[in-house]
Known about the structure:
The chain has helices at residues 4-13, 22-34, 57-68, 81-84, 99-113, 128-131, 136-143, 148-151, 155-162, 169-185, 197-209, 246-254, 261-268, 273-283, 290-305, 308-323, 345-352, 358-366; strands at residues 18-20, 40-45, 72-77, 122-126, 189-193, 216-220, 332-335, 342-344, 370-372, 375-376, 383-385, 390-394, 398-403. It is an alpha/beta fold. It folds into three domains: 4-220, Rossmann fold (3-Layer(aba) Sandwich); 246-323, Orthogonal Bundle (Tyrosyl-Transfer RNA Synthetase), CATH 1.10.240.10; 332-403, RNA-binding S4 domain (Structural Genomics Hypothetical 15.5 Kd Protein In mrcA-pckA Intergenic Region, Chain A), CATH 3.10.290. The strands form three sheets. A six-stranded mixed beta sheet has the order 1-6-5-2-3-4, with helices on both faces. The protein has a five-stranded mixed beta sheet with strand order 7-13-12-9-10, with no helix packed on it. The chain is globular, with a radius of gyration of 24 Å. The N and C termini lie far apart (68 Å).
Amino acid sequence: MKHEFEYQYELISRGAVEMLPEQEFKERLKKSIDEDKPLRVKQGFDPTAPDIHIGHTVGIRKLRQFQELGHQIVLIVGDYTALVGDPSGRSATRPQLSHEKIMENAKTYQQQFFKILDESKTEIHHNGDWFSQMSFKDILELASKFTVARMLERDDFDKRYKAGNPISIHELYYPLMQAYDSVAIKADVEIGATEQKFNLLTGREIQIDYGISPQVVLTLPVLVGLDGQNRMSKSTGNYIGIDEPPGEIFGKVMSIPDNLIYSYFELATDVSMEELSKIKEQLGDKKTNPMILKKRLAETLVRMYHSPAEAIKAREEFERVFSKKELPEEISEFDCRDYGGEVWIIKLMTDSGLAASGSEARRLIRGGGVSIDGKKIDDENAKIALSDNLMLKVGKRRFLRLKYQ
């Protein structure tokens, strides 16, 4: 049997990109085990959208691993950092949300967090708890601990500055605010995506300035979305939401490129290290049909966020519809009577929920993925003449029966 330290280190390392500083992390972990004193492991989330997708769960699942090892998980709901908007990976200033909208999104976030984490063992804070109490003098003190030159070392800001793109003063506060969260809750470890590295390391520096032992940093990869190229994001429509119906999750997984199968298993599921090794071996064998592993991945994710019975049902439905070219057994209906005799296709798709936004609807039409009664729609400005029982199909797996009587 492996020594406890080796076991914990191997599990925590799974899927990680960097541990910074690695030796310090090992020492902190070993001391935690020897003294039976759990590490305080932090991750922050800005509720800028109402739903969580499996890209978000890469970090949440890592928190779950820490939690199962006996460490204390501390979630920071960034109701105040969300007012600024994380500039990581951004080429322009984020639009500001109202605090009311942020808090509305935060409620959904918290419900979805606990599909993965054990709520009874999770400490949760809103960073507005401390930022709303800070005086302007406190804010100036925080700002004094970092230089503009140091801030412009950040890749996002550096590129925007050199390109002559505007950088708002409030954006410069974001890394400092995230760092102060670590001061407020005395984090031992903070995790985040690779693009968060600057923010995470700023946390170490600011903790030292406030006389607190600096956190160690664990960075995780950004999950690539369904298109196989860009990061998973709701705004680009290439995401799998954990609250989506079983059939939708299954179908979306089946659409991913084969080269994402392993990373999805590694970062987004609960399969064991031994199973991961077998999956890697199978993917390297030219005799293996990737479709078999993709179905297993899809079934695994549906089981995780719904149930084993729903996972089996989703697989059977997928095979019936796509292997046998049949319609689904259950097709949702949408009442179109309020539209009059015709409706703009973009409005129909967004109102019915088959597209999250007008931009996603346009992308689907341009990609040839929208049809009415088998006739492809290739005009974004098309008006649909309505009649009862028209079949709207979006992509390969979304069907909707239009009711007009």
